[in-house]
Amino acid sequence: NAGVTQTPKFQVLKTGQSMTLQCAQDMNHEYMSWYRQDPGMGLRLIHYSVGAGITDQGEVPNGYNVSRSTTEDFPLRLLSAAPSQTSVYFCASSYSGFHNSPLHFGNGTRLTVT
Amino acid sequence: KNEVEQSPQNLTAQEGEFITINCSYSVGISALHWLQQHPGGGIVSLFMLSSGKKKHGRLIATINIQEKHSSLHITASHPRDSAVYICAVRSSGNSGGSNYKLTFGKGTLLTVNP
Fold first, then answer.
1. Residues B81-91: pLDDT tens digits?
2. Does the distance separating the beta carbons of A105 and B45 come in below 8 Å?
3. Candidates B2, B41, B45; nearest CB to A103
4. Disruptive mutation site among B102, B108, B109 for chain A (greatest number of A CBs within 10 Å)
5. Residues of A in contact with B38 (CB under 8 A)
6. Shortest alpha-carbon distance between residue B68 and chain A (Å)
7. Which of B25, B31, B40, B109 has its CA 20 to 30 A from that of A16?
8. What are B27-83's pLDDT values in tens digits?
9. Residues A9/A108, Cβ–Cβ less than 8 Å
């Protein structure tokens, strides 16, 4: 099992550029989510999905899109990058029986927008 | 005010010391997670609990639902325990969507010196 795989590990964008952060898991987890981590703040939920074809917004969804066409993949799209989106992004997954299922995190993507 | 408060923010200890990190929350919850993040590294789930106490090796997590408080203890601390420890709660809100959202504390930076 590879667990949760995030790519790329590092990315530098110019303001206005778009890109997709990839997230894949091979544990057949129904629940997948994207978080951003900023200095002095806790992890904040961007978007999440409880199964293929189902997505919903989290705490800070503006400027980001997601889709869930398969159970395995949950890409995060930045439509028009802004300096405020400079952050470290984590993808996480778990079984949807959330009460008894720990979260599995990817290794993170460090994004810098100039 | 953040729904999840951790204390202390920073903690420095000598190898071998007993460590306690605290987490207080203000909402009704269905589960609480303790996570570990090494500098520049990914995030690992340590514990998930909804009542009582769990133990894994030198780590012990307890939760008091009535007092809305959890503690993470590390016995016989070691320099490799140096990391950020993060508390996260899943609320027991009525909305189906909110059941999948975690609220994170800002983390406690633990440094264990040899």
1. 999 999 999 87
2. yes
3. B45
4. B102
5. none
6. 17
7. B40
8. 888 889 999 999 888 899 999 998 999 999 999 999 999 999 999 999 999 999 999
9. yes
